[in-house]
Amino acid sequence: MVRSFCCILPVCAGADPVTIRQVIERTLAVTSHLLVVDDACRDPELVSFCAERKVELIRQKTETGINGIFETALSILSKRGISCMITLDPTGQCFPEDLPRFISYLHKKEPYTITIGCRDFLVPPQNVIRESWKRKLTGIFFRLETGLKSSDAGSVFCVYPVNFIKRLKIKSDVKDFQTELLVRSVWANAEIRSLRVRFAVSPETGPEKVSWLTHLKLIGQRLLPCKKQTLRSREKFHFSLLHPKQFFSYLLKENASPGELAAAAFTGTYCAVLPLFGLHTPVVLYFATVFRLNKFLAFMIQHPFVLLPITPFLCIELGYLMRHGQWLTDISLQTVFYEIHYRILEWLLGSLVLAPVFAVLSAVITYFSAAYLQKKIRLNFWAKQRKILTENKTETKE
């Protein structure tokens, strides 16, 4: 019978041999489906240790890093017809005892779903603070890279669909392989699911570094209007001129939480203040699409800033102050038309300062307004439901 999953334990250079053996022991207590891929640990006792416990061990001939380990594991699992790969944490901070929670989902046929182990902290307060802000920062980067939310995008305790991941094109020299793997999987239209697991920070492992260059590279590629690799087609919303109500209803409900609406307001306002000269609408819609924001709000909120001349006037005045140290008071044919190239430069300089200010104010107002309105709608809904239940009980008694 073909197995549906296999656990992979990557053993990289610098891994603690004692911790690796403990992870193997704890994993075997849950499942015997374990494959250890040794890249550069070269622990002389690891071979005999795995042989005694009948654990399959693959030793790389040369050091290839985590990307080489993944390539080796995916190649082996694909040849054996195994559909899912569960990656274990070689530092022992995640609990292999939580594997049954992952395995319980594997009976479902979801060939395009990646399950991320969302780590629950079981550590002293100082370590929680140290790790939690890094997780939040990684989540912000993940949102910018994919337009999706993730409760723990930096987790290494994950379930990957083998056939889907194997087809992704990722450079072999990538340092932060799993970060790019997760992002490119989303670009290829994979589904992301989170599952809570236990996590205890080990003081010996040291602080986990944030891969700034990798994140900035992925954000840059996300913003570029180039075609991304897609391995799965998504259902598209079909708009008909005969049903405009359905289309506008879709736009209003799209990504409509207070935080998502605030992000749409920030994006629309920021782009509206910049001197884009008639390109505001396509630019706003492009960024709203890339970051999966509410397109209707991003499109509508730009109009007051684009149509009213007060915004360019303020930007030009501020830009003139930045260039000359005084306000522009001489409004004449010479300063407005003959020196238009100077005014455009000042407009750009002033907008770089005012755009984030207006965008933040717009986002804050939108967030609290949306939160208040949505809370009021929910309260009215449940008030009506209670009224209906009360009326039904009264009729029943009568």
Average pLDDT confidence is 84
Contiguous helical run count: 16
In N-to-C order, the SSE pattern is EHEHEHEHEHEHHEHHHHHHHHH
Task: Determine the N-to-C terminus distance.
Answer: 63 Å
Give the percentage of residues in beta strands: 5-15%
* Largest sheet, spatial ordering of strands: 3-2-1-4-6-5-7
Low-pLDDT sequence parts: none
What general outline do the C-alpha atoms trace?
globular
> Biggest β-sheet, characterized?
7 strands, mixed
Describe the structure.
There is one protein chain. It contains 16 helices and 7 strands. By secondary structure, it is an alpha/beta fold. It has a 7-stranded mixed beta sheet, sandwiched between helices. Strand 1, helix 1 and strand 2 form a beta-alpha-beta unit. Helix 5 runs parallel beside helix 8, helix 10 packs antiparallel against helix 16 and helix 14 crosses helix 16. The longest helix has 58 residues. It is globular and about 90 Å long. The termini are far apart. The mean pLDDT is 84.
What would a concise description of this structure say?
By secondary structure, this protein is an alpha/beta fold. It contains 16 helices and seven strands.
Question: Which short descriptors sum up this protein?
Answer:
single chain; alpha/beta
